[in-house]
């Protein structure tokens, strides 16, 4: 989602930094609009570093983009935290004297205010009337938390904790139907996605395979569709219903997948390599079933390496000056030489893709399979720029949306 985070001029502004991190780690694109007073508490450089976007509170910045109109139109959600008494009053009065109040007037999606002020200011009839006015217009105003205030006083007026604000914001977007990536944000772009596990035949009956169900790759195809992309899904062995409204290419082996990817990526804007590609295949396939006979020795199967499809397409793109945005997946386990993140970072550097989505596989402490076949997932999204990995978790569809949103953040200029 595209989120506007408005920051009012109160001491609680420091908590908004944690709220911003919660939004970005969930894969959302956040533009921060601070009031002039709030910049005396938290500087613009902090917001730019945490959000990855430039920060302004002046309606005359980026005039050619008509920012005071564009930001509100494009946002799926606006959150104002902290919302001071002054900011609530200006919003209720329909003021448009800075970029934040202009954007509030143009907001098309849900708007959530998280108040923070002294208890007496919160209880003042003027503030209560302003809150009632905002709520009557369909805007959402949280109740402030009760506790220690800036000085020695205690009472209602504390900014709710960032996790509480985040949960309220996500509930608003789900009830308003904005839980997916903004529709049409990838309109006109072609996204190629691979899914499922490849099968390497030993004979007409048996094969070498892996435990991938293809659920995550199919979820990515649906999330890319939600974002307006033209989707090509290259599916190996999957255990989930395939979408019928995308271009579908079925493959079985790693070599077949390689050929399909090389052909499809030529005119793609984005390639997401979510398939679990076998690292090895038998050096030859028997034409008849391998028989188990008492008078014969146990068969010996010689394996050869499959091509590294991800590394190949990255190298080809770089050699040809292509612009495709390429995302790899890594299913990793730790060992005595390093943890899963160490191996993922090394793989990202070795493959050269733009993003790498890390799945920690194997059995968790509860004895259950962490990733394969399950409907929920937990991943880290690593960026080639070396920034802190972004965590995404929840249903595989929710994780898919977070991955697509991260791609959107990287390739679509806001």
Walk me through the structure:
It is a single chain. The protein is α/β, with parallel strands linked by helices and 414 residues long. The protein folds into 2 domains: 2-175, Rossmann fold; 190-411, Rossmann fold, CATH 3.40.50. It contains 13 helices and 19 strands. The longest helix is centred in the last third of the chain and has 16 residues, at 396-411. The two termini are 12 Å apart.
Keyword list:
single chain; 414 residues; Rossmann fold; 2 domains; eight-stranded mixed β-sheet; five-stranded parallel β-sheet
Give the oligomer, counting copies of the same chain as homo and different chains as hetero: single chain
Helix fraction by DSSP (H/I, runs of at least 4): 25-40%
DSSP E strands, number: 19
* The CATH topology of the largest domain: Rossmann fold
Taking the alpha carbons of the first and last residues, their distance comes to 12 Å
Low-confidence stretches: 363-371
**Helix-strand category:** alpha/beta
Mean pLDDT: 87
Rounded to an integer in angstroms, the radius of gyration calculated over CA atoms is 26 Å
- Our count of helices gives 13
Report the major sheet.
8 strands, mixed
Largest sheet strand order: 12-11-8-13-16-17-18-19
Shape: elongated
- The total number of structural domains is 2
Highest CATH level, the class of the largest domain: Alpha Beta
Strand content: 15-25%
Give the full name of the CATH homologous superfamily of the largest domain.
CoaB-like
